[in-house]
Write a structure and sequence with these properties.
CATH architecture of the domain at 75-330: Orthogonal Bundle
Bound molecules: fe (ii) ion
CATH class of the domain at 75-330: Mainly Alpha
Number of strands: 0
CATH topology of the domain at 75-330: Ribonucleotide Reductase, subunit A
Distance between the termini: 33 Å
Radius of gyration: 21 Å
């Protein structure tokens, strides 16, 4: 464990062995080459078969943003008042940023995944996040009538609006750590620092899938709930949300699976502490951001509702990891919207899936898929 055997990973490692419990889900670089994978991809004997099950389930949810009807209901958007328009624009820009940074971060995570089933999950996961980025581009482009200047203005709020920029830089910095380690060369990193960074980055990925997206989703759902507008945008958002909810489950499983490997290098209490503090910092940044936006724009959701929703979600997501809740909020302030639009816990829309998915449906598949997930894994 002292790094004496630190190996340069080989793309093709003829000394390696892909079968057996000597392999680790992520690279640690301190095992001899015969304990490392060969680099030949195979899935016929995965060490962690449930990770490959997740890949298969995710692929059943395949949907293509560019085959989706584009929302051209610009007139509906124009009917909103200034405040609603602004909040809607911030929300779209923020969501587009989140999926962009997810794609970059998952590229780094793919590099450190070691077992083939994890590498395949990493590639599949990234594919879906790329699809989400395409969806946000299409939403923006469709809604704003192919007006490039306007689309660019909204897209770039992510860096041009001070609150959004601060918020986004915080998130990016947190993932930057792994990128920096990879950039500087893992051979320069001590095992503890590497273990801490991995914990931090995986926890951050989970926090994003599990908490950060949801106030944005809720805001867009709220506009449909309040005014009945932007139907196609909502459909695309509900596909994205269904994917993210699936990712919550997968990433919770990955973190639980990684724990015994990472805690070979750092104590268990430290691992838990990093996870809780990372999730908490994402939740706090979310609270701060929405409070700042709400202070300037009262769009119908109250400060208290936002606060309770973020805290409520954070507690539930920590419980899913087997950790103690930190806020003690167990009432969902958006119970009614969630009943209508579903998808709080599960990637199956419990409420209105038939009506909601009438044009293009993955809900039926998703229902079956969810049963299978829940049967196989305890969430
Ligand atoms: Fe996404
Ligand atoms: Fe995701």
């Amino acid at each position: 464990m002292n790094g004496h055997f630190k190996q340069k990973p080989l793309l093709f490692n003829p000394e390696g062995n892909d079968f057996g419990n000597h392999l680790t889900p992520v690279k640690f670089f301190d095992s001899p080459l015969w304990k490392e994978p060969t680099g030949l991809f195979t899935i016929f004997h995965p060490n962690h078969p449930y990770i490959y099950e997740f890949v298969k389930l995710q692929k059943q949810r395949l949907w293509k943003a560019d085959e989706y009807p584009i929302d051209r209901t610009r007139e509906q958007f124009d009917q909103l008042d200034d405040i609603d328009r602004k909040v809607f624009e911030y929300t779209l820009s923020f969501l587009a940023f989140l999926d962009s940074v997810q794609v970059s971060n998952l590229t780094d995570i793919e590099t450190v995944y070691n077992m083939p089933e994890y590498k395949i999950w990493g590639a599949t996961h990234k594919y879906f996040e790329v699809e989400h980025s395409i969806a946000y581009s299409n939403i923006l482009y469709g809604l704003f009538n192919q007006n490039f200047e306007e689309v660019r203005r909204i897209f770039y709020l992510a860096k041009d609006h001070p609150e959004l920029r601060r918020r986004n830089e915080l998130i990016a910095q947190s993932y930057q750590k792994l990128f920096d380690l990879l950039w500087e060369g893992l051979k320069n990193v001590g095992p503890e620092e590497y273990a801490r960074t991995l914990t931090h980055v995986f926890a951050g990925t989970y926090a994003m899938e599990a908490v950060t997206f949801y106030m944005g989703f809720k805001t867009i759902e709220f506009y449909q709930y309040k005014y009945g507008i932007l139907p196609m945008t909502n459909k695309m958002i509900s596909e994205i949300k269904a994917d993210e909810l699936f990712h919550v489950k997968v990433m919770a499983s990955v973190i639980k699976t990684l724990k015994p490997y990472i805690t070979r290098y750092i104590p268990e209490y430290e691992f838990d502490e990093i996870v809780v503090e990372t999730v908490r910092s994402y939740a706090e940044a979310d609270l701060q951001f929405y409070q700042a936006v709400l202070a300037q724009n009262n769009f119908g959701i109250t400060q208290k509702q936002v606060e309770n929703y973020i805290k409520f979600l954070t507690d539930r997501r920590l419980k899913l990891l087997g950790l103690k809740p930190i806020y003690g909020v167990d009432e969902n302030p958006f119970e009614e919207i969630d009943r209508l639009y579903g998808y709080l816990e599960s990637h199956v829309n419990e409420g209105k899936k038939e009506a909601f998915f009438e044009t293009k449906s993955s809900a039926y598949l998703a229902a079956e898929l969810d049963d299978r997930v829940l049967e196989t894994f305890e969430f």
